[in-house]
Structure formats: C-alpha cells, structure tokens
Design a protein that fits this description.
This protein has about 200 residues and is of the alpha/beta class. The protein has a single domain, classed as 3-Layer(aba) Sandwich (Rossmann fold), CATH 3.40.50.360. Helices cover about 40% and strands about 20% of the residues. The strands form two sheets. Strands 1, 2, 3, 4, 5, 6 and 7 form a seven-stranded mixed beta sheet that branches. It has a two-stranded antiparallel ribbon with strand order 8-9. β5, α5 and β6 form a beta-alpha-beta unit. α1 crosses α7.
Length: about 200
C-alpha cells in the first residue's frame, strides 16, 4: 500500500461546539494529508447514535451502521476524546460499542486525548485497552493535550512542540497504516461482545 492509498479517519468523541479535541484531530488529519493520505473527520455530532443496547440490531440503531461502515473503510483510525472523570467520553464509547472486530481487527489506531487539567493518561490507557480487546494495532506515539484552554487559542496551538506532537500522530497514522499486526491479544479471546457485529 502506497501512502497515497491510505485513508485516515478520525473519530471525535467530543460534542462541544468549540471542542479542543476536534481542533487537535483536524491538525492530525492535516498532517496525514501532507503525508499523502486521504482523510475524513467522523464528527459524532452528525450521527444519531442511541445508547448501545445489545438486544437492538445495529441496522435499527439510528446511524450506527453508517458510522461502522465509515470506520471499516479506513486504513487507520485516530480516536480523539476529552478526558471525563478519568476516562474517555461516552459519545466515543457508544460509537465504539457499535463496532467490533470487523471494524478494528488488524487495523492501525492512533490515540489522542485532551484534558482541562493534568495529562489525560488514563483516558489514553482506557482507549488503548479497548483497541487491544478488538485486536487493533495501536501506534506507540500518542498525543496528550493537558490544560487545553491554555494550549489552544483561536483554533491554533500556542506551543509549537505540542503542535508537533499532535502532527506526528498524523504522520504515524499514514506511516504505519499497513503494518503487520502482532498475534491476537489474550483480551480479544474474551471479547465475545464484539464478535458478529
């Protein structure tokens, strides 16, 4: 796969109008485009996603099937979320609950988390755990944006080093899109809920 064949989709877990997460993901996608990929921002404000109910077919759950198809079509997925209560946001969790192995297995995934305070380490860890349970290959480089209101001003990063860290994630999303994944994780063997989605 050449870099011009790579399609990177970013899934934004923030619904806020002035979302720092969305701003950061747009920077990730811009860097991915500069590296030769096509890109797409999957803005969860544009999808009707009811709370996940395992008794409801995905086809009968609003836009869940459409979203899953967009995730499935990407070569690399970048997950972005604000940190809420030490984890990632519920809109992103709901979106991922409607996906399974068909969307994530053996796929490259990048992680980005934003917080109003200290580094959003636990949000990144929780997203990584979910991806591991789906047999995705998570890029070792991840982007963390602490103190977001001071880090971003008028849609631009204040600190060039932070901007570089975020844009590196976009470049890695293209670079590692066709990586040969490791063997299945032991977590995935227990993830029966993601089978047959």
């Amino acid at each position: 796969m050449s870099q011009s064949d790579v399609h990177v989709a970013a899934l934004c877990g923030s619904l806020r109008e002035g979302s720092y997460t969305r701003t950061a993901l747009e920077s990730v996608l811009s860097a991915a485009e500069d590296a030769g990929a096509t890109t797409e921002l999957l803005d969860l404000r544009e999808y009707e996603l009811p709370t996940f109910d395992a008794d409801r077919d995905r086809e009968a759950a609003g836009d869940a099937e459409v979203l899953a198809e967009r995730v499935r079509d990407a070569d690399t997925i970048v997950l972005g979320s604000p940190m809420y209560h030490g984890s990632y946001a519920s809109p992103l969790k709901t979106a991922m609950d409607y996906c399974g192995f068909d969307e994530f297995e053996d796929k490259t995934v990048g992680l980005l988390a934003v917080s109003g305070g200290a580094f959003p380490v636990t949000a990144l860890e929780h997203m990584r755990s979910v991806c591991r349970a789906l047999n995705a290959w998570v890029i070792p480089h991840e982007a963390a944006i602490p103190n977001a209101s001071a880090a971003v001003e008028d849609g631009e990063f204040v600190d060039p080093k932070l901007e570089e860290r975020v844009q590196t994630l976009g470049r890695r999303a293209v670079q590692y899109a066709a990586i040969e994944p490791d063997p299945d994780s032991f977590e995935s063997d227990q993830n029966v809920g993601a089978a047959g989605k």
